[in-house]
């Protein structure tokens, strides 16, 4: 089971159901959230001498802030609490209790008294998922002031002012870190909001995934613990044939690197046999760099012997629409379509209905728009992707930070692995090889995408750790085997 991403409106009902099931009070849940925040805090080793300013609103997000202030104070940090509400404001019941529990030694002031030219750490507990309607004038002022703060900003649950499920329209806190509770709020995963969210951390507050079952949502969050359940188990009697025979159609004159990267990735992901369909004139390049690959120069008449086919990286466009057509006519199992193959589909929409059902398209943003048209933002993109997948019974991977796996049944799964160091030429070719390989090993399209996308991100993290911005696609391939080790997959 994967973690469901609920809407901000569903949070209250989830909390209420949880509190009832576990026979705890909502105050306990708030304490659990604050304690979870402290665990994250400890992992960051922030300077003990740094002044800490906790900005609290009047709702439960503010309540989290009072509890966090108390716990940090008890751990020996220098804390000041700033109220973002007037004296006449009524606090939420749990915020009110935590407000009264603040140790007397903690200085309590109004936000107007704060000198935003200060350094240190500001913890933003002003507004959480209870944000509704348009931001009131004073709240805008508070948020703009927080954004002029010179030190680090940590937002609790969500940057104040960011709607939990929609695109940002007004101002919102620009956080260096966002520590979110239970599940990542949808809007924290939109690329447009990366600038506001900063580094994202998820804190478990004890709500089991089963407790999400009664709540409807098409969105899921993919984590390390989910992956092993999607893998096939091999025995000691397994032979080369069990690991699949795949055909990679990639590369053209001057772009043979794409073929090398995809084919090598398929091998490193475990394919038993990799055939590469390439121009004959270019055979030496691939045979020298990846001797394990067998080359084909014409599309075989009978394609049924291949367990999976991946097509697109670097193929160019000349006579390639015909090639796609022949593939679709001769092969009825799901295949992987990437890069130039997607651009061709954009130019020949009449081919969409001929793609084998369950196939996987892996566009980056520009390629996405070539088949689905222009989109103004990620929210719109997710909607268009969902309609497209359901209409054509196809799957999509929208590549980027938190790549989204869009399934033909409408579910959309956000990946959690990866690093910005993977934004490098050929990184997508690696993903094509990995997903094709898993398909060829007998995985369902869903399992192949899940394992491929997650492990591609993990391989990028492993490669990026030592190489940072110097990471190249070949480093990601070299790190693929280590992903099986880290996930304890044989
Ligand atoms: N399962 C969970 O997610 C849990 C949630 N908790 C916390 O509770 C929060 C939700 O608490 P609430 O529902 O009380 O709401 P919030 O505290 O998120 O928001 C309510 C506050 O925001 C202000 N506000 C709302 N819309 C505004 C607008 N347009 N302009 C200006 N001010 C506005 C309200 O006046 C009120 O002070 C979560 O974000 C989280 O921090 C935790 O305490 C416990 C567990
Ligand atoms: K907040």
From TrEMBL:
Residue sites binding (6S)-NADPHX per the record: 60-64, 128-134, 157, 258, 314, 364, 429
SUPFAM superfamilies (alphabetical): Ribokinase-like, YjeF N-terminal domain-like
Ligand binding (K(+)): 61, 124, 160
Binding site for AMP: 399-403, 428
Domain YjeF C-terminal: from-to ranges: 223-487
Cofactors that this protein relies on: K(+); Mg(2+)
Domain of life of the organism encoding this protein: Bacteria
Family: Belongs to the NnrD/CARKD family. Belongs to the NnrE/AIBP family.
Gene: nnrE
Stated name of the protein: Bifunctional NAD(P)H-hydrate repair enzyme
CDD domains reported for this sequence: YXKO-related
Originating species: Algoriphagus alkaliphilus
């Amino acid at each position: 089971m994967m973690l469901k991403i609920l809407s901000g409106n569903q949070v209250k009902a989830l909390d209420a159901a949880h509190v009832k099931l576990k026979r705890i009070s909502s105050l306990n849940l708030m304490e659990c959230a604050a304690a979870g925040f402290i665990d994250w805090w400890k992992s960051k080793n922030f300077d003990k001498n740094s002044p800490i300013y906790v900005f609290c609103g009047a709702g439960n997000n503010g309540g989290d802030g009072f509890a966090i202030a108390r716990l940090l104070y008890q751990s020996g940090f220098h804390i000041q609490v700033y109220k973002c509400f007037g004296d006449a404001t009524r606090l939420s019941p749990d915020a009110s209790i935590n407000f009264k529990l603040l140790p007397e030694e903690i200085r309590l002031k109004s936000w107007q008294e704060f000198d935003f030219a200060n350094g240190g750490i500001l913890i933003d507990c002003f507004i959480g998922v209870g944000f509704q309607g348009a931001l009131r004038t004073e709240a805008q002022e508070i948020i703009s002031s927080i954004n002029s703060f010179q030190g680090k900003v940590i937002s609790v649950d969500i940057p104040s002012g960011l709607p939990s499920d929609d695109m940002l329209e007004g101002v919102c806190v620009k956080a260096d870190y966002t520590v979110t509770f239970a599940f990542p709020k949808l809007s924290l995963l939109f690329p447009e909001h990366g600038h506001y969210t900063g580094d994202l951390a998820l804190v478990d507050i004890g709500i089991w995934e089963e407790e999400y079952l009664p709540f409807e949502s098409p969105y899921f969050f993919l984590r390390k613990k989910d992956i092993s359940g999607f893998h096939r188990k091999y025995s000691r009697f397994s032979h080369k044939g069990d690991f699949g025979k795949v055909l990679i159609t990639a590369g053209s004159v001057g772009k043979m690197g794409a073929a090398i990267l995809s084919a090598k990735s398929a091998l490193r992901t475990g394919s038993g046999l990799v055939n590469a369909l390439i121009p004959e004139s270019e055979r030496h390049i691939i045979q020298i760099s990846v001797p394990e690959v067998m080359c084909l120069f014409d599309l075989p008449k009978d394609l049924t012997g291949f367990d999976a086919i991946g097509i697109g990286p670097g193929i160019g466009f000349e006579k390639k629409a015909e090639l796609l057509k022949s593939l679709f006519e001769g092969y009825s199992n799901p295949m992987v379509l990437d890069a130039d193959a997607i651009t061709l589909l954009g130019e020949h929409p009449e081919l969409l209905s001929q793609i084998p059902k369950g196939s996987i398209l892996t566009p980056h943003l520009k390629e996405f728009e070539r088949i689905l048209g222009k989109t103004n933002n990620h929210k719109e993109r997710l909607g268009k992707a969902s309609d497209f997948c359901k209409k054509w019974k196809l799957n999509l991977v929208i590549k980027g930070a938190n790549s989204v796996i869009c399934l033909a049944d409408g579910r959309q799964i956000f990946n959690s692995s990866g690093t910005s160091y993977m934004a490098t030429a050929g990184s997508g070719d690696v993903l094509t090889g990995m997903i094709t390989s898993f398909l060829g090993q007998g995985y369902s399209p869903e399992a192949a995408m899940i394992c491929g996308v997650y492990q591609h991100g993990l391989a990028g993290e492993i490669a990026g750790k030592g190489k940072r911005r110097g990471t190249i696609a070949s480093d990601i391939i070299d790190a693929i085997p280590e992903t099986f080790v880290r996930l304890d997959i044989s």
